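Q&A log
Question type: sequence-to-structure
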Amino acid sequence: MIVELNKRQTYFAILIFWVFLCLVYQSIWIFSRTATAEIYGVSKSNFGRPHSTLREVTWLEASYRVGEKIYYDSYLKDGYDLQNYQFKVRYLIFCPSLSRADTFVSNWGPLILFFVLMGIVTSIVFIRKDIFSDQVVIQLHTRRPFIKIENNQIEDYDVHDIEKEKLNETQQTLKEKLQAEERSSQKSDISTSVYKFNPNAIAIFAGYVILFFWCFYSLLSGSMGYTGIIFFGSVLVFIPLYVQNTNNPVFKAKIPDEGSLLFSLGGVQFKEEFYPLENIEAAVVYLESFRGFTYRERVTTGKVKTKSSGDNNKISFRYNQEVMDFIFILDESSDYWSFKNLMSSWSAKGVNVLLQKVFEDDFVIQEMVHFKAG
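Response status: OK
Response body:
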């Protein structure tokens, strides 16, 4: 028996699995009873400087009786009034030495924290396309191998369909215009961008870390109520998801350094550094697309509309026995065609150029006609 899941189905299946683990653990405590514990001591733990009260966690040393035997354990203070000297604990019937304070924080807090942490990690793993591609298929088998991953790679250009469809007059005119643009795009200088680190990312990361550890401390100390756990847990999950998916440059970890990388017939200019073409021995190019290129992408459920950011173009060239690598952004279709033609010019001038394209030229033109004239 084989069960196949796409990327989204696998993501939700794993989240359900984390919930299932939490419920399995919690179901063990169905076989439990309560007892009255008596406080005989108080201890404090410091997470940081030795005399810092801001990082102190108070523990109650208490004992409780089950039958004729007395058990000893430590519990978080969790808002208990030390003047009462007593509070309720819950212990396992089949193992009375295992117990916890009978409060919401002690009963559910660790499980909520576990689910939030695993939810964040799972979300980050599945959002990043360099870990699992959008076309990935997870196969679950009853025999070894129990889990098999298929189609977890970037589609090569030959798997994109070039459809033979009848074009109307408007589409045919646009197609001829785009084909003429492809042949005539011969820019001598092609301005591209590379990513640079966003200074705002430092503040965002620092604020997130502070919030995370504050929530963790509040949960351990019992000062965070049920509403606070739900609210701040949602915030902790939302922040990395928003930063990963937003197009707002204020919150992105990396932002384009516009026009910082220039390709020309004379070589490569990166900011203040210039690499003359006569000293470039060989170049390997991975040409994906340009910013805003929209196409129909084949997935396990059919085809979906995908819009490219044009930021996954790569070049690696050997210059004076050193290898230089750049990942760059092409802004528009004319830059895309001009760059491809420029690589042909480099090759004609003696540079050993290996060009790999994700999309065939006819496919690019086909999709541009489909979405612009559609």
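Response note: Confidence is low (pLDDT under 50) at residues 51-55, 154-158.
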